[in-house]
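Quick note —
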Amino acid sequence: MSKIILHIDLNAFFVRCEEIKNPSLEGKPVIIGGVGRAGIVSTCSYAAREKGASSGMPTYRALELCPNAIVLPVDFSLYKAKSQEFFTYLKRYTPIIEKASIDECFADFTDVLKDKKDPKAFLKQMQLDLYKETKLKCSIGVAPTKFLAKMASDMKKPMGLTIIRRRDVRKMLDPLPIEAFFGIGKKTSPKLRQMGINTIGDLAKLVNQDDPEIKNKLGKFFFAIKDWINGYGSDEVSTEPFDPKSVGHSVTLRVDATTVEELNDQIKEICHWIEEDAIKSNKVGKAVQIVLKDNEFKTINRSKQLPKTTNKWEEIYKVAHSLLVDTYDGRPTRLVGVTLQKLQNPHETMEQLSIFDNYDEIKEENATRLLIDELNRQMHSSVFKTAGEALRENPNGFKRGK
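Predicted structure written out below.
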């Protein structure tokens, strides 16, 4: 018997969070991201997408296409809180959940749906109840494999519910453009089109013929894609926490950057995302690396040890910024990335004390930090903070008593 795998994807998640906070934004073109020449769109509302705006696009270009759009900065604390609501809600139905990102996951619903007379109606009600309770909108893909579930969730947005049965694979997948194939990136799809492969059906035909040219083009991924395209592949939803050795992100710029200021804006945003990933994985790191790729595809990597292990974006950014200033020579740059390296669990760290350090203060600070990290790990969120952290996040939120 095949498993029943769901892929659940929150629709325009960042924008939706802002709409929940400010309902007057609903239905309007909204862009979430940086401003200025180097600003990049993180995501945008469906109204803005209809005008041509899209994720990864420079904000100034998105505003040229959609001049009446409302531009808002990324609000990490809000998105983390709403994401936690989403995952807490899903755990009512099944503990077998694999987080794919802050706003999407795979879930094994085999046992949940096995006795349901109308599984589709059950899932539709689950989707509506999520909206009623959290105001979050989601699309749900249902299939016997993770790949097909992901493909299904992408087919109808927002608030879609799509089921792909193995017998329906050819009918539902073959007409789709090759760019819709999950796992085939933006670099590979143009090369496939040059070979006359314009749809998933075109690819399926060649793959199933073991065409040597396509086998060479896809390399080690050929056999995995052959399984996926025929309705097979992994159906294992992993609940084990991912144990990364590093966390990092990079941004490819639509317009080459030529100043430290432009690149610095990107680095600051990336460091926020690294903090999110590191906290979610309950990790701290000991080194920071930056990567720069110029318009001739020459790559430069530079790294530096941190004074102490951390997962705080401000401390990561301080080192990343210094590496950028020391490294960047003004050449046009199209990609910038930051990675927090040498990750370890907070309770496994041991800092080297200087003779100038106050040992009692450090011991107390580390004990507090370990307690907070453990509580946050159990809550699967950064709910608990020290007073200093809370004050840095909201400097106007604390007032001295009279």
